[in-house]
Amino acid sequence: MSDQDERVEELESKVERLEATIQGLTEELVEVHDRLETLETSAETSATSADATNAETPNSGDSHARTDENDESKSEESQNEDETGGESGLGDDIIVA
Predict the structure, then answer these.
(1) Per-residue pLDDT for the chain (97 aa), expressed as one digit of tens each?
(2) What does the alpha-carbon distance between residue 53 and residue 88 come to, in Å, rounded to a whole number?
(3) How many CB atoms within 10 Å of residue 45?
(4) Which among 37, 56, 59, 69 counts the fewest CB atoms within 10 Å?
(5) Cα distance between residue 89 and residue 45, in whole Å
């Protein structure tokens, strides 16, 4: 094989690795976007629920405490997802040189 053929083969290999990396990152981005939409929807629902509770009992500090608990559980859930890395299974075998 000539040097030029080897160079072409090397470049084709790099292109394949880069395409795999792009594919993996794109899939992870879509997954993160979906998770973000879910969290935003959940937050909006919680806010609407808290507003309704506050409207029913304007002098109650109890509903505010429940909202704080919801915020804490969301933070813990987000932290757990960060620690596990989302376990998408993507990118485990992708090596970027």
Answers:
(1) 689 999 999 999 999 999 999 999 999 999 999 999 999 999 888 888 777 777 665 555 555 555 555 566 555 555 555 555 554 455 556 555 5
(2) 37
(3) 10
(4) 59
(5) 30
Q: Which is nearest to 24 in space by CA: 97, 93, 75?
A: 93
Residue 82 tokens read as 């960060």
Cβ 50 vs Cβ 74: under 8 Å: no
- The pair of structure tokens assigned to 8 is 């072409």
> 86, 31 in Cβ contact below 8 A?
yes
User: 67: which DSSP letter?
Assistant: H
Report which secondary-structure segment, H or E, holds 73. Answer: helix 62-84
d(CA 19, CA 87): 21
pTM above 0.70, yes or no: no
| 45 touches 69 (CB < 8 A) | no
Q: Letter for the amino acid at 17?
A: R
Cα–Cα dist 47/49, whole Å:
5
